[in-house]
Amino acid sequence: MEMMPFYIDMLNNFFVVNVIVVAIVDIFNHFINLVLPHDFFNKILTSTIQLLAVVEPFGIIPILINLTKKMEKETSKALSKSAALTSALLLMIFGIAGTQILAAFGITVNSFMVAGGALLFIVSLEIMRHGVLRNVENDIQGTGVIPIAFPLIAGPGAITSVIISQQKDGLVVTIISIIIVISITYLILRTIGPIYKILGNRGSEVISRIFAVILAAIAIQYIVEGLKNIIIK
């Protein structure tokens, strides 16, 4: 009987702690609901999938193989890192102030899509004719920016996608989706060494030319869509 008060006190303390924990959890959930919309994570998932589909990092592998097959491992690694960082910075800039940047030059999103599509088409023609991009093979510093970071990763489609995402879902969702997509892209770019060992020189050139045709089709799609929207407006 002497132990009863002890157990009663323990139960009371446990009850009080439980009430406090439940209250803290409720306050935290209420705070999260105030700060973040209820569909916040769904928006991140949707925005990330859309951007990843446009960037299509697997499609960049054949071109990067041709650009890096004669490079040292460390140089190739630095190239992938430079391309990823540059494209991430470019997409974030356009995600934050893309509409204002284009408007400052009197450029619409549709006009940007047409111009970007034309640039992509030129890149695809160069690859189809020669199997590689001749003008950038000897410029290791520039290769990380042209054409890998832009227009292949942060191309007109990706830039348009982040501008639309910022207007529709907000800046936080857009930035998070950019970070996720570029991180995935960087990891994929870092696997080009093993892929080249499997494909070999001839295989990589064949795949590069096949991808160039697909890239040309994507470029034409950008041009057509941009022109269609311009004509309709």
* Radius of gyration computed on alpha carbons: 25 Å
Largest sheet: none
Broad structural category: mainly alpha
- What are the segments in which pLDDT stays under 50 over at least 5 consecutive residues? none
Considering DSSP H and I runs of 4 or more, what fraction of the residues is helical?
over 70%
Shape: globular
- Could you give the order of the helices and strands? HHHHHHHHH
The total count of strands amounts to 0
**Gap between N and C termini, in Å?**
87 Å
Number of distinct helices: 9
Could you give the topology of this structure?
Blueprint: H1 4-35, H2 40-55, H3 57-68, H4 73-104, H5 109-130, H6 140-153, H7 156-169, H8 171-189, H9 192-232
